[in-house]
Recover the amino acids of this structure.
């Protein structure tokens, strides 16, 4: 099966999160088009909806929403997605990938359009585990200080 790097953007906070979609998660993207909305449960985000906004293949060629079908195409571009002209009237033939998600994609860009009950912080930020503090007796503290005082210092070079 194919694996994708999925960059999920949160429009409410402006933050982006990178996850790896393998097997079932990647299968949810296969055959979809840029602009399609998928259920977030496929990636482990229950109650969320995710819209595909773009992507690129292994050579970095971007996908374009208005190119139907599969594969790459070389098209003549003026100012638009995939090309920024350096002077007025410049046009250039560039390779672009069609909008259908295939196994050739490496990265998929997406954004959250519907939010679930659980916050995104809970999904992406690791929970800080609290370690119970063990009380230290005065004897243990004194022993630790004595061992520090007894250690000889290394000679200066």
């Amino acid at each position: 099966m194919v694996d994708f790097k999925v960059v999920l953007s949160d429009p409410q906070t402006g933050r982006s999160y990178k996850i790896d979609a393998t097997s079932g998660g990647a299968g949810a993207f296969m055959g979809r088009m840029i602009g399609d909305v998928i259920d977030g449960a496929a990636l482990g985000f229950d109650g969320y909806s995710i819209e595909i906004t773009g992507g690129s293949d292994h050579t970095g060629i971007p996908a374009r929403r208005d190119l139907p079908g599969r594969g790459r195409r070389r098209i003549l571009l003026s100012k638009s997605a995939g090309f920024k002209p350096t002077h007025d009237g410049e046009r250039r033939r560039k390779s672009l990938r069609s909008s259908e998600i295939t196994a050739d994609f490496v990265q998929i860009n997406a954004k959250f359009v519907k939010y679930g009950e659980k916050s995104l912080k809970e999904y992406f930020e690791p929970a800080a585990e609290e370690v119970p503090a063990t009380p230290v007796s005065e004897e243990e503290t004194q022993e630790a200080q004595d061992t520090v005082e007894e250690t000889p210092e290394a000679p200066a070079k």
The CA atoms of residues 49 and 114 lie 5 Å apart.
